[in-house]
Structure formats: structure tokens, C-alpha cells
Design brief:
The complex is a heterodimer of chains A (about 150) and B (about 210).
Chain A: H1 3-23, E1 26-34, E2 37-41, E3 44-47, E4 53-55, E5 59-62, E6 67-72, E7 77-80, E8 85-94, E9 99-114, H2 117-121, E10 126-130, E11 133-138, E12 141-146
Parallel strand pairs in A: 9-10
Antiparallel strand pairs in A: 1-4, 1-6, 2-3, 2-5, 5-8, 6-7, 7-9, 8-9, 9-12, 10-11
Chain B: H1 11-26, E1 35-39, E2 48-53, E3 56-60, E4 66-70, E5 73-77, H2 81-93, E6 100-105, H3 115-118, H4 121-130, E7 135-141, H5 148-165, H6 167-170, E8 175-182, E9 201-206
Parallel strand pairs in B: 7-8
Antiparallel strand pairs in B: 1-4, 2-3, 4-5, 6-9, 7-9
The chains are: A alpha+beta (about 150), B alpha+beta (about 210).
């Protein structure tokens, strides 16, 4: 394969990849930030502030002394404390067509969770995952801590 | 040499046991590295969680109830309130404001708000202003009088009327979704063709 052909293919792949990243839906917005928090999306690290959109698959990380609060599109409230890492892996909120799902993962740190409309309409469609637990949510509020 | 079970085993095992012993002596109880506590909701009710791991599962439905999240599966736990406060104060303080929803009603088949609903606009404006990075959805609805297509359009017109009334506040919004459910999503189910004032509405969610 010629150098140019390779470049064209690489360019096309990058284009497709960008299109995919753009299409990854917004699941909610950052509302509260204290200290240093970043969002890792496809190898890039972005600073987080009030109004920053969270896309599916984004890794939200807080430094020591930092915290972040998010409101998802279904009114679920997620907030994490210092040295925490959270990812929303699945989010479907189309009540009219019955498409409902929420799955988030706390890799380490602390999480305060208040369930939203998805948990009200279809409780079995909501779960929070940690390295040593899968938490099924039946319309509720809880805190969870993960450390080694 | 007599091997007391508390002091036998590997170095890591001994360290764990020393920590355990210290916890027993302190009597306050130490929290495990990973744990979950169920809390009371804003409305005073408590929901439930079902925790599964490594083939084991446990259910909590009482506020203050806790589980240790071990590699071997969840196990019951008693955690002292000060420990919960210490571990979760930052996460709890970062909790976003609760979203608010409003329902406004309309006269007949018009886009004119009822007098009572028009009086609520000020509250909605205040809600949008008080919300950091507001994400607002405005959904128009109609009753089942008239045909589907016309109702779809009427629902959207109603939603737009509300959006226009909130225009100043919405300039600070991070997202505004203005949509219509037409007659497909009635608050009060009726037969087709029925006039129902409670279904002629716009629902506003301020997130």
C-alpha cells in the first residue's frame, strides 16, 4: 500500500472516529465543582467546570480535596468526593418508547447517588457497578465508597 | 510455641488482624475499605438496593443500613455515623440542586395560558435563574379533541409560547429542548375526541 493510500485511510478513520465521539450522547451536565477535576475522553483530558457536558464513556476524575456534582438527563443526581473516578457506561432515556437504562461505574473513591426518573419507571434498568459489587437500585439514595 | 489464631498467618494477614484488634479495642468500629450505606430520600421515604457479587447477594431497605463490599461478596455491616460523615461529606456537599418540574395549562384549543398558569411564570423564571448551568426541557401536550397532526403542531406552539416567556432566563441555559408529544401522552387518559382541560398543558423541567 502506498504512503498516500495509508494517509487517506488514516484520515478517514480519524474522521469516522471524531464523528463517533461527537455522536456519543450527552448524558448530563456538571453542576458543582470544587478543586481540580478532569474528564478523560478518548485519550484527551479536559478541565471540568459548571456546565461541562458529560458524554457516555467519559471518565470523570477528581484530585485529592476535589468534588464534582452531576445532574443526568433523567434527573439522577451523582456526586463524587476526592480521589474518585466515575464513568457512565449506559444511558437511555426515551420514556415514550420505553427505552430506559442507566449503568455507571465507580472505579475508586466515594459516590453519593440519588435516583431519577429511569429508576422510577424501570428500576431493574438501573445499576451502579464497583470492583466488588453490582448495585441494583430500587428508587433510592445511597452512598458508596471504593478503595483498595 | 502456641499459635493464637489472631496472630497466625502471613505478614499481610497479621497486619489485617492487628487493625481488626485495634478496631475492637476502639469499640467505635472501623469501616471496611469498600462499603455502601442506604440513606433516606428527600421525601422522607427510603428505597432499597440489591447488591450482588461473587455469587452472593444482599438487599437493604432501611435507612442507615450498610454492607461491606468484599471481593467475596457483600456482608452486613454496622458503620458509625461519624465514619459516614467523614468518608462522604465531600460527595454529599457536591450534590446538585434537585431539578424542578412545572405544569402550565391552556385555554381550549389555543396557545393562551389559563390565568392561574400565567401567574406561575414568575416561579419558573426564578427556578431557571437559581439553577447552575440550567438544562431545560419544555414539552407541549394537547387533549384528544381534533386530529393527531393538528395536535402535534398545537403542542409545539404551546411549548414555544412558554419558551418565549422564559427567553431572558434561558439565555444562560446549557441546553433547551422544546418538543411536542401532541395528544400521545395525556395526563388524564380519555377516549379520542374528548375535551380534557387537564391534558392541554406544557411540562417544564428545570435540571
Amino acid at each position: 500500500m502506498s504512503f498516500f493510500a495509508r494517509m487517506i485511510i488514516a484520515g478517514l478513520l480519524m474522521f469516522a472516529f471524531n464523528a463517533w465521539a461527537q455522536d456519543s450522547p450527552v448524558v448530563g451536565y456538571v453542576k458543582v465543582v470544587t478543586g481540580d477535576a478532569t474528564l478523560a475522553r478518548e485519550g484527551q483530558s479536559l478541565a471540568v467546570g459548571a456546565g461541562t457536558p458529560l458524554h457516555l464513556g467519559d471518565r470523570l476524575r477528581t484530585a485529592s480535596g476535589a468534588s464534582v456534582g452531576l445532574t443526568l438527563k433523567d434527573s439522577t443526581l451523582l456526586s463524587i468526593g476526592p480521589d474518585s473516578e466515575l464513568v457512565v457506561d449506559a444511558f437511555l432515556f426515551a420514556p415514550a418508547s420505553g427505552q430506559l437504562a442507566l449503568s455507571a461505574r465507580l472505579l475508586h473513591g466515594t459516590l453519593h447517588f440519588i435516583s431519577g426518573i429511569i429508576a422510577k419507571l424501570k428500576p431493574e434498568a438501573v445499576n451502579i457497578v464497583t470492583p466488588t459489587a453490582t448495585i441494583g437500585v430500587r428508587g433510592t439514595r445511597f452512598v458508596v465508597k471504593v478503595s483498595e | 510455641m502456641i499459635a493464637h489464631p489472631l496472630f497466625s498467618g502471613s505478614k499481610a494477614g497479621i497486619r489485617r488482624k492487628v487493625v481488626l484488634l485495634a478496631c475492637m479495642l476502639l469499640a467505635a468500629g472501623c469501616a471496611p475499605p469498600s462499603y455502601l450505606v442506604l440513606l433516606e430520600q428527600d421525601d422522607g421515604k427510603t428505597g432499597s438496593v440489591i447488591v450482588t457479587h461473587a455469587g452472593r447477594s444482599a438487599r437493604l431497605d432501611q435507612a442507615g443500613a450498610a454492607l461491606a463490599l468484599n471481593a467475596t461478596g457483600p456482608s452486613p455491616l454496622t458503620v458509625d455515623e461519624n465514619q459516614i460523615r467523614t468518608d462522604f461529606a465531600a460527595a454529599m456537599q457536591a450534590r446538585p440542586q434537585s431539578p424542578q418540574t412545572f405544569v402550565l395549562y391552556f385555554e381550549g384549543t389555543t396557545t393562551t395560558l389559563t390565568t392561574a398558569s400565567a401567574a406561575r411564570i414568575a416561579d419558573i423564571r426564578a427556578s431557571v435563574r437559581s439553577m447552575p448551568a440550567p438544562d431545560v426541557s419544555i414539552v407541549g401536550h394537547t387533549d384528544r379533541a381534533g386530529d393527531d397532526k393538528a395536535n402535534e403542531a398545537l403542542g409545539l406552539e404551546r411549548a414555544k409560547v412558554v419558551r418565549n416567556l422564559l427567553a431572558d432566563e434561558l439565555s444562560a441555559a446549557v441546553e433547551i429542548a422544546v418538543t411536542s408529544h401532541g395528544e400521545r401522552n395525556p395526563l388524564v387518559p380519555t377516549a379520542d375526541g374528548v375535551l380534557e382541560p387537564r391534558n392541554r398543558r406544557v411540562e417544564i423541567t428545570v435540571r
